[in-house]
């Protein structure tokens, strides 16, 4: 964290009742207390901006820069008018289902839903119970809370805490006359998908998996233990045949997104085109509210599930597709939600830098570490990079490729 970091979580000492609920619930031991005065304070070096303390504070003494109660309510009310839906889906940041996956979830839950309001938050544990009551009173008929499986919660205790809250909330809602199905909890974690017909049995995924979720099989393809898989994407990074990929972040799908986008960006304006590959835990504003950062810029942001999934091939392909600049935004080692195997990505980055230097593209690539603990750091860094690229002549690396080209390793 920089010395100029403006903390995203603060305690208003004038409102604090010294109840120490936040101290007892913080899964990262980021809240300290004075034994004599019972005063509590947040250690911003340890805080992961999960929001569990915020949602638990009985006197609203904790202030959040992101996804605070009023902004969440305003968002739902605004979307309700635009989308014209009466179903709210609250999603954990690390496991946000696609529309197709949500259709399957609705079917499993017995809900006939065509349109819904998606609300993605860093952790399910950030949602206070009174928010649920408020949106139901405001016209929402169904709330589906899609949470990480307990063992895979990126914020350690967030899903367990929110599940208990919602169960207690359901009991109160039934007493108030609401349907027992008004609030549903769904456990869902994004995993690696193995396309066995594409697998050649090289076992690279076995050796690279930092969570020992893949095991080699005699005279057969490797086997994925879904109880251990965290969806980090390290296996996808090394598979030479795209036989194993993280659901929702398949290589060709991601490549198609930026390949199609750069064509539109180049056609729309004559200013340089820039793409940002961002770890979904490093910077919230750029992913959840890109207009706040990219407005007026010829740029796009694509997320990756983890630093280990920031495939160097995507960087090179982005230049080949026509982008003039590529920015990589990742968590710091302190903020990483999937600590195991970080050295894999660091080695990949070293190789990427060497290739870019040989191709004369070093100045067109920038790699930065950002933390959601600090407010507004993404925007100035992006602005600086964008202006640097704008001052350069347009890149001449772009080459003609088939719209659905194969991965180039």
List keywords for this structure.
14 helices; Alpha-Beta Plaits; 4 domains; Rossmann fold; 409 residues; single chain; 34% helix; alpha/beta; 4-stranded parallel beta sheet
Description of the structure:
With 409 residues, the chain is of the alpha/beta class. It has four domains: 9-64, Alpha-Beta Plaits (2-Layer Sandwich), CATH 3.30.70; 69-187, 3-Layer(aba) Sandwich (Rossmann fold), CATH 3.40.50; 192-246, Alpha-Beta Plaits (2-Layer Sandwich); 251-390, 3-Layer(aba) Sandwich (Rossmann fold), CATH 3.40.50. 34% of the residues lie in helices and 18% in strands. The protein has helices at residues 21-25, 52-56, 69-83, 99-108, 129-137, 158-175, 204-208, 234-238, 251-268, 285-288, 291-294, 312-321, 342-358, 378-390, and strands at 9-11, 31-33, 40-42, 62-64, 87-92, 117-121, 142-147, 183-187, 192-194, 214-217, 220-224, 244-246, 274-279, 299-304, 325-330, 365-369. Mean pLDDT is 89; it is low at 400-406.
Concise description?
The protein contains 14 helices and 16 strands.
């Amino acid at each position: 964290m920089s010395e100029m970091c403006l903390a995203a979580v603060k305690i208003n000492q004038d409102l604090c009742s010294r109840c120490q609920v936040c101290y007892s619930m913080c899964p990262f031991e980021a809240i300290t207390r004075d034994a004599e005065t019972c005063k509590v304070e947040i250690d911003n070096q340890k805080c992961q901006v999960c929001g569990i303390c915020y949602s638990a504070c009985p006197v609203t003494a904790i202030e959040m820069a992101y996804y605070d109660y009023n902004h969440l309510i305003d968002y739902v009310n605004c979307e309700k008018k635009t989308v014209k839906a009466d179903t709210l889906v609250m999603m954990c940041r690390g496991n946000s289902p696609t529309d197709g996956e949500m259709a399957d979830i609705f079917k499993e839950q017995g809900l006939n839903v065509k349109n819904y309001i998606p609300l993605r938050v860093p952790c399910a544990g950030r949602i206070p119970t009174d928010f649920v009551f408020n949106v139901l009173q405001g016209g929402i008929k169904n709330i589906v809370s899609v949470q990480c499986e307990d063992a895979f919660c990126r914020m350690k205790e967030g899903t367990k805490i929110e599940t208990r809250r919602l169960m207690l909330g359901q009991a109160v809602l039934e007493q108030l006359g609401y349907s027992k199905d008004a609030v549903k909890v769904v456990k869902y974690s994004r995993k690696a998908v193995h396309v066995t017909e594409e697998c050649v049995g090289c076992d690279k995924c076995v050796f690279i998996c930092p969570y020992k979720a893949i095991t080699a099989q005699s005279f057969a393809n490797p086997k994925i233990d879904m109880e251990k898989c965290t969806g980090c994407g390290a296996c996808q990074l090394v598979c030479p045949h795209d036989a194993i990929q993280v659901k929702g972040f398949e290589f060709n799908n991601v490549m198609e997104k930026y390949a199609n986008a750069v064509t539109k960006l180049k056609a729309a304006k004559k200013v340089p085109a820039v793409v940002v590959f961002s770890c979904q835990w490093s910077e919230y504003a750029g992913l959840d509210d890109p207009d706040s950062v990219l407005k007026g810029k010829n740029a796009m942001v694509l997320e990756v599930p983890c630093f280990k999934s920031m495939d160097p091939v995507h960087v090179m392909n982005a230049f080949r597709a026509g982008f003039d600049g590529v920015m990589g935004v990742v968590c710091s080692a302190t903020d990483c939600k999937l600590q195991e195997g970080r050295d894999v990505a660091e080695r990949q980055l070293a190789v990427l830098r060497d290739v870019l230097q040989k191709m004369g593209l070093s100045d067109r690539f920038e790699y930065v570490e950002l933390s959601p603990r600090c407010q507004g750091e993404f925007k100035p860094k992006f602005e600086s990079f964008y202006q640097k690229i704008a001052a350069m002549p347009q890149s001449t690396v772009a080459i003609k490729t088939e719209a659905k080209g194969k991965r180039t390793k």
